[in-house]
Amino acid sequence: MRRTVMAAAVAALLAGVTLGCAPDGGTARKSPAAPSGYTEMQKKVDAAESALARADEDAAQDDADR
Questions:
Q1: 3-state secondary structure labels for all residues of 15-56
Q2: If both were cysteines, with which of 20, 38, 48, 49 could 34 make a disulfide (CB 3.0 to 4.6 Å apart)?
Q3: Are the beta carbons of 19 and 26 closer than 8 angstroms?
Q4: How far is it, in rounded angstroms, from Cα 11 to Cα 5?
């Protein structure tokens, strides 16, 4: 009987460790919700990246003109 109890305890411990170490704690993965204002911020980031690219092009052209 003692072996059975020990085997059950070890099995429960291994199951708990396996679930605890699984990605997302063993829960079903859900797609994260976009935070409020995310789309607006993405537009601002895209605009800033475009402006930076234009500035880089202008600087490279200025260097080439010299």
A1: HHHHHHHCHHHHCCCCCCCCCCCHHHHHHHHHHHHHHHHHHH
A2: 38
A3: yes
A4: 10
Contacts for 19 with CB less than 8 Å, ≥ 6 apart: 25, 26
CA 4/CA 44 separation, integer angstroms = 63
- The single-letter code of the amino acid at 18 is T
Amino acid identity, position 5: V
The pair of structure tokens assigned to 6 is 């020990």
pTM equals: 0.45
Name the strand (E) or helix (H) holding 13.
Answer: helix 2-21
Residue 26 has pLDDT above 60, yes or no: no
